Amino acid sequence: MNRLKTLTACVVVGAALTAACTTAPSGRQQLLMLSDSELNQLGAQSFEQLKAEQPLSRNAAHQRYVGCVVNALVAELPQEWRSQAWEVQVFADESPNAFALPGGKVGVNAGMINLAQNQDQLAAVIGHEIGHVIFRHANERMSRSALVGAGVQAGGALAGTRTSPETARTVAGLLGAGAQLGVMLPFSREQEREVDVYGQDLMAKAGFDPAEASRLWQNMIAASGRSAGAVQVLSTHPDPQARASALEQRAPALRPQYEAARAQGKRPACG
After folding, report:
1. CA–CA dist 45, 52 (Å, integer)
2. What does the note under cofactor report (predicted)?
């Protein structure tokens, strides 16, 4: 635990000294202050804390289902990401949410499994979250935070934390691990647009129907309307209806890619 506190404080406070300008998969320039190994270590340790402090699902069928979807998506990632040891955990939380952390860690709430009506819709949300990892958005948002001083304050607060749950929530928030875990800095609109596009492309390459991405968002919007705060992720994502419409408009162009994947034998049968 002390090692985690020290690492987090040091990498955030000292980040400005090692800033690097890189190019995101979308082509835009990013300012990244942490190394992949540092982010992966933070992601892995935070994931262990979350598993220790949050209730885990005992539904073996759900675990196999989510694992199947993740494996199909990961198989289509670039080699540097595909070669990671990806880990999946279903949490016994009825709020519809999912997240991915640096280091190849994926968490899905039971509520998201219930909300997603089929494997394609589940692939849409998981592909979206994996996109945040591929685009190194956690690194980018921590770097931006450090530049304006918020990162230094967060690092200092984390270094002084005494309890394991507090540490887990703070690190998870910095890395972007779901609204229910206390996200401190929501992803920007630009970042969300990037992973909307990336996630929908990824699911089509893996043999999941890209048209279901829009339908998933419609499900989340409907669920939020039935119960105030039912879908907390909507509070940190801009204009969900516009995003659903954009995904719907993109789907026909991805149909040939989806059909080609199916013709190549990429036919996920996750459940």
Report:
1. 11
2. Binds 1 zinc ion per subunit.
Query: Which one, of 152, 133, 126, lies nearest residue 14 by Cα?
Result: 152
Per-residue pLDDT of the chain (271 residues; tens, 9 = 90+): 444 444 444 444 444 444 567 777 777 777 777 888 988 888 888 899 899 989 999 999 999 999 999 999 999 999 999 999 999 999 999 999 999 999 999 999 999 999 999 999 999 999 999 999 999 888 888 777 666 554 444 444 443 333 345 545 555 555 554 433 333 345 677 888 899 999 999 999 999 999 999 999 999 888 876 543 444 444 445 578 888 999 999 999 999 999 999 999 999 999 8
d(CA 198, CA 144): 22
Q: Are 210 and 128 in contact (CB under 8 A)?
A: no
- AA letter at 147: L
**Active site residue ranges:** 129
Domain boundaries, the chain: 2-263
Using an 8 Å Cβ cutoff, are 235 and 183 in contact? no
